[in-house]
Amino acid sequence: MLARHQDPIAAIATAPGRGAVGIVRVSARQPLDGLIEAVCGQALKPRHAHYLPLRAADGSVIDQGLALHFPAPHSYTGEQVLELQAHGGPVILQLLLARCLQALPGCRLAEPGEFTQRAFLNGKLDLAQAEAVADLIDASTEAAARSAARALEGALSKEVNGLRDALIHLRMFVEATLDFPEEEDVEFVQQADVQGQLTGLRSRIEQILVRTRQGALLREGLQVVLAGQPNVGKSSLLNALAGAELAIVTPIPGTTRDRVSEQIQIEGVPLHITDTAGLRDAADEVERIGVARSWESIAKADVVLFLHDLTRLQEADYQREDERIRAQLAAHDDAAHLEARLLHVFNKADAAEVPEGAMALSARTGAGLDALRQELLARAGWQAMPEGLFIARERHVQALSRTQAHVGGALEQVSVPRPALDLVAEELRLAHEALGEITGQFSADDLLGEIFSRFCIGK
């Protein structure tokens, strides 16, 4: 995709289907005067909306609509951009798109995310801001949308650029010091308080990393699987959490035979809740497939909510299924992570005595649901931040974690009596590169291709 970014491109920029208004967008490096004359029949004043007939090749009118011309570099992509706004019927928009492709030599259909990719390549957005465009479109909660807007405005980029400037300052000093005789290295390092600067930088990275993890949680959400034996109330709990009758609830064991998923939000954090078939030795093939899918979901879950029926605690099968779930999770987790992922919850608190210290609720009455919601947020690592959050991605968290590790490595080197400044310089270089991956300062083409391919066409 990167090799073709000089071609003129065109696409329908609004969602598929029928609507009141639809947009066809064109972006090109070369002037668009010929295309504008062919489609609009007149010159367009930059950044002004013109209401006029949009014409086919034979001069007939395709539709009456608005045309806007954004000359480079003052456009979304930084190139020459033409936007045609017409009635939002699929046929009308396809006719306009075909007309643009015909009238502009070399023009081709845009690939997913290519308009935003060009904005990035032309310096209109950095990579974190470009990703925020997609995150704003895909936001599933109001909190996620607001956080994506902050990231698009550059909140994350500003934090990263501040770290970058501090790293550049340290790199320049350390690498310049390498030119001096070895016996003077220690004196230079002490005079500049390199150790103190690195300690402060590591603390700043940790603070930003905490906020970035919260931003990633707003984007990614938490995968929660409801597990347990048949008829313990998993489907009732899903319905109670969702506030809707999503899953069928009957007294018949094995009613749920396949996964039922729903997204809810708690304090703006999206939670993807999956109800699964009851864990037992199934009697028929359909239920066996459902139970197998339950185990697949359990293996992938961020939190396994293992539901117990307080009226049936004496049944031996509970202990067996608990051991099976722990064995399944232990294949992927250490002991601490396993305990963080496995949450025991006791249902039907309105009908039986609750064991001391147990998390209990009643899916029927709703008692205890608020406590469960708060526990799920705690398991997710959610913290109410005093300042506005910015949306983030797991790759941002990983890049900051590597940056922190390399800064820590440099700090270890300067903490010894005679530091090896060449190793310090290398750790700082690696930290700088890891940080640059967030904004795209250091990014491989395959990473860019993966990121922009996930955008919608026309954006």
UniProtKB/TrEMBL annotation:
This is tRNA modification GTPase MnmE. (6S)-5-formyl-5,6,7,8-tetrahydrofolate binds at residues 25, 83, 124, 459. SUPFAM superfamilies: P-loop containing nucleoside triphosphate hydrolases (SSF52540), TrmE connector domain (SSF116878). The keyword Hydrolase applies. GO terms for biological process: tRNA methylation; tRNA wobble uridine modification. Keywords: Cytoplasm, GTP-binding, Hydrolase, Magnesium, Metal-binding, Nucleotide-binding, Potassium, tRNA processing. Its cofactor is K(+). Its EC number is 3.6.-.-. Coiled coil: none annotated. It comes from the Bacteria. Signal peptide: none annotated. NCBIfam families: mnmE_trmE_thdF, PRK05291.1-3, small_GTP. GTP binds at residues 231-236, 250-256, 275-278, 347-350, 362-364. The keyword Transport does not apply. Pfam families: MMR_HSR1 (PF01926), MnmE_helical (PF12631), TrmE_N (PF10396). Binds 1 potassium ion per subunit.
